[in-house]
Predict the 3D structure of the following.
Amino acid sequence: MLDAITVLGMGFGQDQRPTGQEELSDKLQAEFGSCRCWYGVWPVQWDHDARGLAYRIHRRLAPGGRVVLGMYSWSSRLGTDLAEYLGAYQRRVLAAVFCSPVYRSKAPGVRFLVWASRRQRIMLPANVDYAMSFRASGGVVRDHPVVRKDDGLVPERWLPLPHGDMDEAPEYHKEVLDWTRRAIGMTAKAVALAASLFLTAGCGGDRMRAAAGFGAVVIGGTAWGTPSMSATLGDHQGGKPGLVVAGPDSAAVTELVREFLARYYPTNTKQ
């Protein structure tokens, strides 16, 4: 199961490749790729089935797992519908970040008419803990405000860009990256080092490096999945596994490992 998932919604009719959302997906994969056993980046099209996607997330996400949404243009409707369907499973969305959100009517005949209007509102369900909307200040296509059903307008930040360039905005990318770091529960530096943290009892360096490619830990010479993939470690070879840290900042990394062990193996792992 996964501990955190970031869903990125693409815009309508994007013919430039790579799109800003695809570039953001690459950034997430580059920073958190070593965590892929327990973290996922899911890029989807604006017209994806929100109900089916909510079901997939619910099935793959661990209890208490966290969801971050990065929704551009027409996919804003996908994001709000997805959050509502996740609420039916008693799931919450940690953060929903909207990028030049455009209201998408369920009636196909009027979808394009709203591009010239600012009267529409995009309604956000109550199970979203944090929301931010980046608005475009130029271009033909007009985006729309996101409003909480129970608490009014979500915070907005206007950028000097047309709608078509908004998903490339560094400010938007940073917001999604920052909330993904929070979802995973590590700083960017700690995440980068996560694949170098191993529990070991005499393992060779080659095996440790090989396990790093899977985001795994090594215990007594045996590669295991990350914590969400393994229920318990138990005693190995009659004793508690020791701790080996690989990283340039040993004090900081050791503290991270202590938190890591306390979170996942509080009763059967010696720190």
Notes: The radius of gyration is 21 Å. The chain has two domains: 2-185, 190-264. The mean pLDDT is 73.
